[in-house]
Amino acid sequence: MTESKPLENGWTTFQLRHQLFSLGEDFWIQNASGENVYKADSKAMSLRETFVVADVNDNELATIEAKLLSLQPTMKILRGGKLSATVKKAMALFKQKFSIKVEGGAEREAQGNVLKHEYQITSGGKPVATISKKWFSLDDTYGIALAPGQDEVLLLCAAICIDEMAETPG
């Protein structure tokens, strides 16, 4: 895998790019140099919304599944078949909020503006990631910046969950 370049402040940036003309919603996740480093493959024929996140050599790193029966939109992130985190869309009046409950770890919160697709993920009140569409002119591309020392696969999966749930009511 090609390493992503950290910014001067130590944050690492990625681009989440929807693949046009693909069945389902497939994404390439590229590093700051524009090289593909991860792929999120939508399983269009699955009964539930499912993504398999893999590296460029097709090694599966995580699976994202939408929870079918839930009062609020919910997605699970699995690693090695075991629950790693649960992302839930929370009720909010003027902003969108998401809780990211990491198994055996700190809970994270994401909040932002659905119209501008601008979100910040925090842990213990401190920013650990930002998701932004404003960095790009293409409608199918989002920027994701991760703070140093973060679990990049987990936070990239959380960004995919937020992207998928942002426009669902709840």
Can you walk me through this structure?
- It is a single chain.
- By secondary structure, the chain is mostly beta strands.
- The chain has one domain: Alpha-Beta Barrel (Tubby Protein, Chain A).
- It has one helix and twelve strands.
- A twelve-stranded antiparallel β-barrel has the order 1-2-3-4-5-6-7-8-9-10-11-12.
- A hairpin with a 5-residue loop joins strand 7 and strand 8.
- The longest helix is centred in the last third of the chain and has 14 residues.
- The protein starts with 11 loop residues before the first strand and ends in a 5-residue tail after the last helix.
- The model has no long low-confidence stretch (mean pLDDT 84).
Label this structure with key terms:
mainly beta, 1 helix, 170 residues, 12 strands, Tubby Protein, Chain A
CATH class: Alpha Beta
- Assigned CATH architecture: Alpha-Beta Barrel
**Biggest sheet layout:** 12 strands, antiparallel, barrel
Mean pLDDT: 84
Query: Would you tell me which CATH topology applies?
Result: Tubby Protein, Chain A
Count of distinct structural domains: 1
Dominant shape: globular
Distance between the termini: 37 Å
* Order of adjacent strands in the largest pleated sheet: 1-2-3-4-5-6-7-8-9-10-11-12
Radius of gyration over all CA atoms, rounded: 15 Å
SS summary, helix count? 1
Q: Please, what is the CATH homologous superfamily?
A: Tubby Protein, Chain A
- What sequence of helices (H) and strands (E) makes up the elements? EEEEEEEEEEEEH
- Strand-residue fraction? over 45%
Number of strands: 12
Secondary structural class: mainly beta
Unreliably modeled segments? none
Helix content: under 10%
